[in-house]
Design goal:
heterodimer; A: Rossmann fold; 60% helix; B: 72 residues; SH3 type barrels; 14% helix
Chain lengths: 655, 72
């Protein structure tokens, strides 16, 4: 049996879904749209009862993508997910607005149950609801009072669903609109009139059913007092910046050790494989391709988990909608929406969870622009690249006597990311066409404490989604890169290696091995590619070695440091940046005494890394979220072009 | 004729009509329809959205959207 959960956003539908199914959930997709389809088996049911959690909606007439999904499903009785029963989650503290959707669903004629949620909040608001009478006016439908957040009434609801009593055939609440499950009205104006009529009738019903006790507004007034502070012209923004500061400190501080741990684990796993398995191509593939590839997926998990944890808390408490409320004004000129703030800020940690967080933006155009520009924010993977290059080329001088120039350059790189993201948004605003009108009509829910079991379910879901969906792509690209770096055309690598003089003394062996790996790389497919793009990157101040690092960085930009280390043959000392720094500093342009890494080249490289789309995982997530190859492709092209031009200008001005 | 965007804070009024526009039906869905009593409860700074009270729940909308709502 199929049961669909329908309800307003903020009605506690997701809490109820988690209560009904536990961790036994799976996420699929509705065909052709970006809305996730969450389903799960009902707890305690022997028979197959599947619960489908439909997106939160306010009306059966679609205005947003979420609403369209529900509309398409409920309009089509032959749809494979068409429910045998619908449970409508109704927020008891907001009865009038919630009954709009409920009565629309009731009129579809599918057996329907009302889960009357948040009866505790209604109580605090001083509302007394006569449930029996409400059931009676609505034609004798089943109403089960619950508090989904605490689990009150859930067992009774599960019993009721398992029992599966045949529904009474009630008269439609408002005839001629959804009779026999059909959507009879197409004209938007008539639909609007219908909604108004429905509301009028609901009000009449409510005047019989709901009594308001004394002291009605004290709860609301307390919440409004908090609102006044959080949306204050001065304190509102100060508090917001303070919250951001705390979150970023926490993300950097708490994700460091698990990331180091993961890194160490995968490096030692590679080493173990090399030592244990017999020497050969397969061992190399596992040790140098597959394990680092997996590591590249897993290493993002701590940041994703932390960032989503914080975002979840901001959302559950209701603070996020206040942030959207105070920042909408500043985002609109850029073709963005107040809701774009969350992904843009998250992008400083990592673009992957940031892009996943754009789903809260209703308007497709604004969402797409947000997705397109978010990777311009300097993410944490750029930090090692910046650190290395700043140490290499920026002199240790003080500006105005007390500001460290190195620190200033680093800050500048972050700022340039923000500016670039906003300007790119402005450009996309001109190109992205949309008939959908931009609007921000948003409920500001009451503040509440987050539920920790919901947090666990949400995090589990996000991490699983990332590991499996993006992971597959990152993993395949890593293997391809390994193949390109290991093999060369014909016997080219072998011939080049044969030309290196064999070591005669014991202490020369290590030197010889470094030379071999360097020559092998130079003659591999990727080395040849590095040489091939040299003419194109020469105007930016780069040589073929940097070219290789650029190419390998297209999988993930943090690869840069490792590639540099491999190219400059520092062998095992991957993490010893001092050694690498010395080698890079002493690197001279062929046949001259000019150093390769001048201030101009270094800065040009930093600018390149600030703008270029060098992250397979991000592209994979963009593809997943937009469901169209076009968008990650455009993103790759425009960001790389921007990086090229900006780096070119930087180098030509400074050289 | 007065519209919702020009209304002062904490003054209860009744919605008279909504000018037709792509977003009007969204407002109606959210419970903002003719005959409803509303009140502006707080505003975002610098001409940002406004927050109105609708029977004890808070709805926010942009000034542009509020200007579609005629009240008395």
């Amino acid at each position: 049996m199929k049961i669909s959960l329908v309800g307003n956003p903020n009605s506690g539908k997701t809490s109820l879904f988690n209560q009904l199914t536990g961790l036994n959930q799976k996420i699929g997709n509705f065909p052709g749209v970006t809305v996730d389809k969450k389903s799960g088996k009902l707890k305690r049911s022997d028979s197959e009862i599947e619960i489908l959690d439909l997106p939160g909606i306010y009306s059966l007439y679609p205005k947003t993508q979420d609403e369209k999904v529900v509309y398409d499903l409920l309009r089509d009785k032959t749809h494979k997910d068409y429910p045998d029963r619908i449970v409508v989650v109704v927020d008891a503290s907001n009865l009038e607005r919630n009954l709009l959707l409920f009565t629309q669903v009731l009129d579809l004629g599918v057996p329907v149950t009302m889960a009357l949620n948040m009866t505790d909040v209604a109580d605090k608001k001083g509302l007394v609801i006569d449930i029996e009478k409400l059931s009676e006016v609505l034609g004798g439908i089943d109403i089960l009072p619950i508090v989904a957040r605490t689990g009150k009434g859930i067992n009774e609801l599960i019993d009721h669903l398992i029992e599966n009593k045949p529904a009474k055939t009630a008269e439609p609440f408002l005839g001629g609109e959804f009779d026999k499950g059909q959507f009879l009205i197409d004209d938007p104006e008539v639909r609007k009139e219908r909604v108004e009529n429905r509301y009028k009738k609901i009000r009449q019903v409510l005047s019989f059913v709901v009594k308001q006790k004394t002291l009605p507004k004290s709860l609301i007034n307390r919440h409004r007092a908090v609102d006044k502070i959080l949306t204050h012209p001065f304190f509102g923004y100060v508090i917001f910046l303070g919250v951001l500061f705390v979150i970023f400190q926490a993300i950097y501080a708490w994700s460091e050790w698990p990331m180091d741990l993961i890194d160490t684990l995968f490096v030692s796993a590679s080493a173990w494989v090399k030592d244990t398995l017999p020497e050969g191509m397969l061992t190399n593939l596992i040790a140098e391709g597959i394990i680092p590839g997996l590591g590249g997926v897993v290493i993002f998990i701590p940041q994703i988990t932390l960032l989503f944890g914080f975002i979840f808390i901001l959302e559950e408490t209701g603070y996020m909608s206040r942030v959207v409320f105070i920042l909408d004004r500043f985002m609109r000129p850029f073709g963005l929406n107040g809701r774009s703030v969350v992904p843009l800020i998250s992008g400083v940690a990592c673009a992957i969870p940031a892009i996943m967080a754009t789903r809260t933006i209703d308007n497709w155009k604004e969402r797409l622009i947000t997705i397109m520009v978010t990777p311009l924010m300097s993410c944490s993977a750029r930090l090692p690249v910046y650190t290395l290059l700043i140490a290499l080329v920026v002199p240790d001088t003080m500006v105005a006597g007390f500001i460290n120039l190195k620190g200033l350059v680093l800050l500048g790189l972050y700022l340039i990311g923000v500016v670039a993201a906003l300007l790119a948004a402005l450009a996309f605003k001109l190109f992205v066409k949309s008939r959908q009108k931009s609007f921000l009509v948003m409920e500001l829910p009451l503040y509440k404490m987050p539920r920790w079991n919901n947090l666990i379910v949400t995090l589990w879901e996000k991490v699983r989604l990332f590991v499996f969906d993006a992971g597959k792509i990152i993993f395949s690209i890593s293997i391809i890169l390994w193949v390109l770096a290991t093999f060369g055309p014909g016997d080219r690598i072998e011939e080049a290696v044969a030309k290196i003089p064999e070591p005669t003394k014991e202490e020369q062996v290590e030197e010889y091995e470094k030379e071999v790996s360097s020559v092998s790389l130079s003659n591999s497919y990727i080395g040849i590619l590095g040489h091939a793009i040299e003419p194109a990157i020469k105007p930016l101040g780069y040589n073929w070695q940097i070219g290789i690092a650029l190419i390998t960085s297209f999988a993930a930009r943090e690869v840069f440091v490792g590639s540099m280390a491999t190219i400059y043959s520092v062998g095992e000392d991957f993490d010893d940046e001092a050694t690498l720094l010395d080698r890079m500093r002493s690197e001279k342009i062929r046949g001259t005494q000019e150093p390769v890494y001048t201030f101009a080249t270094g800065l040009s490289l930093m600018i390149f890394y600030a703008f270029a789309m060098q992250c397979m995982s991000t592209l994979a997530i963009v593809l997943r979220e937009t469901k169209n190859w076009k968008y990650p492709f455009i993103q790759l092209v425009y960001m790389t072009a921007l990086a090229y031009v900006a780096a070119l200008i930087t180098y030509q001005l400074l050289k | 004729m007065q519209t919702l965007d020009l209304l002062q804070l904490n003054k209860a009024v009744t919605v008279k009509s909504l000018s037709p526009n792509g977003v009007t039906s969204k407002l109606v869905d959210m419970g903002l329809y003719p005959g409803k009593t509303v009140e502006v409860v707080f505003k975002a700074p610098f001409g940002g959205p406004i927050a109105i009270d609708l029977d004890g729940y808070t709805l926010s909308l942009r000034i542009d959207e509020a200007s579609l709502v005629e009240v008395e």
